[in-house]
Design brief:
Number of domains: 1
Structural class: mainly alpha
Oligomer: single chain
Distance between the termini: 24 Å
Largest sheet: none
Length: 257
Amino acid sequence: MKNSLAIAKVVVLEMYRRKDFYVLLALTVLITGLMGSVTFFDDPKIGRYLKEICLGLIWLSSLFIAIATMARQLPAERESRTIFPLMAKPVSRGQVLFGKFLGCWFASCVALLVFYIFFGFVAASREHQWPVGNYLQAWSLHCMMLAVVIALTLLGSLLMSSVAGNATMIVVITVGILLVGRHLHKVGLRAGELPGTLLTGLYYLIPHLELFDVRDLIIHNWPLIGWPIWGIAVIYGLVYAALLLFASWLVFRKKAF
């Protein structure tokens, strides 16, 4: 665990030395600030639309940060040949993978927290309330979603040599799951026997990332999700991330550099 934490620390420092996070943070702050300053923000309907747009921007920014950061970790190590001295140390391949995952996940969640705090500050300045519980549940479940996406990106980086190709594939998969994942079994019921079986099987196989999208808690100021249900969602995300990490370890342990 100590070795994994050391690797994670390096990943975190590397991420915050790059400009990606700061550019996205500046854009998010600018757009959110401009939207929060418009005079019709007090209108309930328009206010909800603006909050939805800003939260959508936060989701896109967090996905870009997480996928881009994780996709280049192992390929960068191979290109710079730093993977060889790393593997020569008393560090197992499993510890390397877990350290890379942990560092990327931690850094992404911290960046996400900054986004949510700024957005919450702007919204509270207009609505004169800050439902902290809603923001906490939305942020934590968002982090669980990122854990699954980051683990999937790590697996993809072991199966594909191209950073751009892997990142593009993960973006397509993630967006596809978020948009149509919940409807696959319905389509499967209307399709033929073989396509229907395949779609139903795919429905139960994929991680349902849409379950972690609880932006409506903030947009509409809905009551909190029951904490037992929240806990089940957290466990669901952790289990899927663990399974993807295990699959990555199976691939990585036999990979020659």
